[in-house]
């Protein structure tokens, strides 16, 4: 029984560490849209068609993003969320 509790405690500690470390890793970073290669996005997209990393299907999709150092997005050829959202909305209106 003690062994099971030790394993459970270790698993809980690892889970909490990853949850606490995530915001610390994101400090000083920003979402940069339109720079991710296919399959290299960091999380969900503007369209809401997926919510996981690595699910982008085309290079430089303006709805997909990667975390980059704050202030470096535009120099990498990307867009911040407000601009990406405007472009996405404009494309959706065109496709209707």
From TrEMBL:
It comes from Alteromonas lipolytica. InterPro entries: DUF2282_membr. Residues 1-26 form the signal peptide. Keywords: Signal. It holds the Pfam family DUF2282. The keyword Signal applies. This is DUF2282 domain-containing protein. The keyword Signal applies.
């Amino acid at each position: 029984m003690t062994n099971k509790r030790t394993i459970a405690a270790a698993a809980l500690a690892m889970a909490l560490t990853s949850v606490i470390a995530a915001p610390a890793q994101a400090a000083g970073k920003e979402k940069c849209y339109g720079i991710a290669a296919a399959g290299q996005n960091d999380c969900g997209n503007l369209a809401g068609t997926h919510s996981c990393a690595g699910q982008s299907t085309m290079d430089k999709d303006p709805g997909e993003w990667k975390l980059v150092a704050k202030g470096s997005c535009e120099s990498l050829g990307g867009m911040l969320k407000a601009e990406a959202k405007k472009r996405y909305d404009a494309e959706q209106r065109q496709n209707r």
